[in-house]
Amino acid sequence: MRRSDREITEKSEIVNILEKGDSCHIALCDGDTPYLVTMNYGFEWNDNLKIYLHCAREGKKIDLIKKNQKVCFSVDTGHELVVSEKACGWGMKYKSVVASGTIEIIENNADKIKGLNLLMKHYAGGTDFQYEEKMLQATTVLKITVSEVVGKEKK
Description:
The protein has helices at 11-20, 60-67, 109-124, 133-138, and strands spanning 7-8, 24-30, 33-39, 42-45, 49-55, 70-82, 91-106, 140-154. By secondary structure, it is of the alpha+beta class. Strands 1, 2, 3, 4, 5, 6, 7 and 8 form an 8-stranded antiparallel beta sheet that branches.
């Protein structure tokens, strides 16, 4: 990171950003063109950070994942516009997390339920949910295993 004075290295601070974020942006590879999509997410960080996402069973995102499992994602929060009398004095306060890793399609129901529960925990605060078999079959759950993560804060 070019601006080390803005870097966040503490795991607890990165987790705090992930907890406060309400969506993430994932970037996939479409040949030599990036493909970016905004998604809801859940996460866990035991030995390493894992991000869980859900989507339909078909579509461009799924096609790209089947071709190339490399992924990058970002979450940002705490936006506050900084105004100034001079144009170059304007800016934005924020906190963000950017990470890269590999993305996979989860096939078995037990792991799907784990991922869906982490999504529900993130948005609803609980993890005791029931999922109909029909819905599990219609839903794709994705898991990003993070290999590199960095936080950033502009005050």
